[in-house]
């Protein structure tokens, strides 16, 4: 608005004041007002100038708050949002520490749980995970009223309420004043934002008004961040479960492969025994028939143990095979193993011979030991040429070996 210094009449000055008011209404705060002569109208002019400066200051603050809100809203996870609050709120609200707590339930009762905090002081006593009941606390009154609370002398407040653990801890951190702000998103209480300062008496109603101007937006942003964070945590948990399921599936396949391999030998023995009974039963003595039937029973019992191992979900989940240790007579044990394999070897015209075993008793799991020895002998029989000899020998060196005339592993791979 053009200012004419020659305007002196009261009516003209009043008209110019009206134009200034219209200018302020449009958001134009660069005003020029005639102040001479000094009278009541000049005092009105001074008041309009002060108003223009105040409105301009508030407009700049509102723009900065809008920019701040947009920046905070750009955060995706809750921790990112709270970091932005801590980094950018200093020009508007003084603090040395900001804490954020969520309202949740435990056993059907509402509790306030510390989720996040950051301070520029060396000590922090209230960290993530600290919780306290909401019912009956001063925070319950704040959330019900929806109005922030100022405590400008925390030491005096602690003297009045010496049983307040949270107040004692925050004072031990060095804080002397606090501004507690409730966060309510769409009518639902979300939690609290705690601004704390080492300077007593630092907070004023202006800080409450400023926070209230963005409280609604900030509450919605924080709630959005909390939900996104929960979704991210659930996604991570699902991925971890999938990895665990894949691990268990691999273990299952491993155990299944072991079982198939270990069952092949006993099944061959059972098949051989039943074939003998069907084909030459009339030519067998009672003792020979009983021997074959007894061997079939033993083989089927052994296979049942292997199958039970395979179906043991707990064992598969742990990925470990437990050993049931007992004292084993090595000579008798190996004699039984070799005797079972002789029948299968005979089908290939292959002989299996157990060399003399020195008297020895060992501590072992008979089932697992049998699996190992069975695998050695069955592979030796499988890869030995027809008519060869498989020799089983034991030495007192914690080593058992099986000698055959078959192909080496390299030969097998080369042949394949």
Summarize the structure in words.
Among the domains are: 10-73; 89-220, 2-Layer Sandwich (Beta-Lactamase); 323-416, Histidine kinase-like ATPase, C-terminal domain (Heat Shock Protein 90, 2-Layer Sandwich), CATH 3.30.565.10. 56% of the residues lie in helices and 17% in strands. It has helices at residues 10-25, 40-73, 78-88, 138-145, 154-160, 165-172, 205-280, 286-311, 313-318, 330-347, 366-383, 409-415, and strands spanning 97-106, 109-119, 131-133, 149-151, 177-185, 188-197, 326-329, 351-354, 361-364, 389-395, 399-403. The strands form three sheets. It has a six-stranded antiparallel β-sheet with strand order 3-2-1-6-5-4. A three-stranded mixed β-sheet has the order 8-10-11. Helix 1 (10-25) runs parallel beside helix 2 (40-73) and helix 10 (330-347) runs parallel beside helix 11 (366-383). The longest helix is centred in the middle third of the chain and has 76 residues, at 205-280. The chain starts with 9 loop residues before the first helix and ends with a helix. 21% of the residues are buried.
């Amino acid at each position: 608005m053009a200012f004419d210094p020659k305007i002196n009449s009261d009516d003209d000055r009043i008209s110019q004041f009206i134009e200034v008011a219209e200018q302020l209404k449009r958001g134009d705060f660069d005003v020029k007002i005639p102040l001479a002569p000094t009278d009541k109208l000049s005092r009105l002019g001074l008041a309009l100038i002060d108003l223009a400066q105040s409105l301009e200051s508030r407009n700049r603050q509102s723009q900065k708050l809008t920019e701040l809100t947009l920046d905070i809203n750009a955060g995706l996870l809750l921790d990112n949002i709270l970091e932005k609050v801590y980094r950018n709120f200093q020009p508007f609200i003084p603090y040395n520490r900001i804490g954020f707590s969520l309202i949740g339930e435990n056993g059907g009762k509402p509790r306030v749980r510390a989720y996040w905090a950051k301070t520029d002081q060396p000590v922090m006593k209230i960290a993530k995970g600290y919780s306290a009941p909401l019912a009956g606390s001063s925070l319950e009154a704040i959330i019900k009223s929806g109005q922030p609370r100022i405590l400008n002398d925390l030491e005096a407040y602690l003297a009045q309420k010496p049983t307040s653990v949270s107040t004692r801890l925050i004072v031990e951190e060095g804080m002397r004043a606090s501004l507690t702000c409730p966060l309510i998103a769409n009518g639902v209480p979300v939690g609290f934002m705690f601004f704390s300062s080492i300077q007593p008496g630092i907070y004023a109603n202006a800080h409450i008004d400023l926070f209230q101007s963005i409280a609604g937006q900030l509450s919605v942003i924080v709630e959005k961040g909390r939900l996104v964070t929960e979704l991210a945590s659930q996604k991570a948990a699902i991925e971890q479960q999938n990895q665990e399921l894949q691990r268990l599936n691999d273990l299952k396949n491993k155990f299944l492969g072991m079982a198939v391999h270990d069952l092949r030998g006993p099944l061959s023995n059972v098949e051989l025994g039943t074939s003998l009974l069907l084909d030459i039963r009339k030519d067998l003595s009672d003792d020979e028939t009983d021997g074959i039937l007894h061997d079939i029973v033993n083989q089927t019992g052994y296979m049942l143990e292997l199958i039970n191992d395979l179906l043991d979900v707990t064992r598969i989940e742990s990925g470990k095979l437990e050993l049931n240790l007992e004292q084993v007579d090595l000579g008798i044990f190996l004699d039984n193993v070799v005797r079972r394999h002789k029948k299968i070897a005979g089908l290939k015209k292959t002989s299996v011979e157990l060399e003399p075993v020195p008297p020895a008793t060992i501590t072992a799991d008979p089932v697992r030991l049998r699996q190992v020895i069975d695998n050695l002998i069955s592979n030796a029989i499988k890869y030995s040429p027809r008519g060869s000899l498989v020799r089983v020998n034991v030495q007192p060196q914690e080593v058992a070996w099986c000698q055959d005339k078959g192909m080496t592993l390299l030969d097998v791979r080369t042949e394949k």
